Amino acid sequence: MENRQLPAYFLENGQHPIEKAHVAVVPVPFEGAISYLSGASAGPRAILEASAQVELYDFENDVDLTNVRFHTADAPTLKTYQDVRNHVASHLASLTPEQFYLGLGGDHTVTIPAIEHFSKKYPKMGIVQFDAHADLRDTLHDDKYSHACIMRRNAEIIGPKNILSVGIRAVSLEEKNYIQENGVNTIPGNFALHENLLPRFSELLIRLPHDIFLTVDLDGLDPTIMPHVGTPVPGGLSWHQTVQLIKELFRRKNVIAADVVEIASNSNSQRSDFTAALLAQKIVAFWARNRRLT
Ligand SMILES: [Mn+2]
User: pLDDT tens for residues 139-168?
Assistant: First the structure.
């Protein structure tokens, strides 16, 4: 597989060897069967390039990331889901529980091998998913590893009741029935209008296990702030809602790893790239504060 040199994450802090890093950033430039708009395979590079513009100091949360050491993994060409699984698994295998995994998609299938890995380390674990879509179809176009099916696969690994999905607003009837019959904790997109979004999130979060994998499909955010995604759906979360919920998640749970996926990078505009990089920075900032690295 050909390795491409990617820009170091967070500029001067991205070049640490993996064994010395606090955070392992693993780009996964994979684009499987696309449902709508293409560009996901260029996503990791776009986020890494934009990350050079992100402040290491987080003003709103008073967290200084200067002392957080990042390792940015190489990004090989990934042609099949099996390539994705091998790539993600090989990096995860070398991490200790003290290190934080941050996957950068790529389409949402990159989450499955990470869940396979962490479910062996944390037999009782949960997933918090930000997304416009439930991703709970059993198959799409005969593909069980389509990005439209990834939460169904994850539910089979960790149990559907251990999932909390936020921002959901594009759901098939099959998925609605699955949610109801299997008790997937779901906050619909129109909760973005409710003042009790945060209390509802906290209430459902309490039901989940303590160890959590956070997966952010960027289309969970509203397309007015995140236009460059594969399948933009109006009615998503605002920036401040997203950050507030992630902050609450880190306050209440042990977040073991995260990924940020489904950006469909567009060379005509870097707006979404920067927003995605900033969101990744927030996730790392909350983690670093919990670990008292800052
Ligand atoms: Mn989605």
Answer: 999 889 988 999 999 999 999 999 999 999
Residues with beta carbon < 5 A to ion ligand 1? 131-133, 217, 219
CATH topology of domain 3-290: Arginase; Chain A (3.40.800)
Tokens at residue 146, please? Answer: 């389509």
* pLDDT tens readout for residues 99-135: 999 999 989 999 999 999 999 999 999 999 999 999 9
Query: How far, in Å, from the CA of 108 to the mean position of ligand 1?
Result: 8
Place of tokens 């749970």: 253
Distance 262 CA to ligand 1 centre (A): 7
Cα(202) to centroid(ligand 1), Å = 22
Residue 221 CA to ligand 1 center (angstroms) comes to: 10
Distance in Å, CA 165 to ligand 1 centroid: 11
Backbone φ, ψ for residue 200 (5° rounding): -65, -40
Element (H, E) at 119: helix 111-121
pTM of the model: 0.95
Going 205 to 222 to 30 to 17, the CA torsion angle's sign is negative
CA of 36 to the centre of ligand 1 (A): 11
pLDDT of residue 33: 67
**Cβ–Cβ < 8 Å for 112, 30:** no
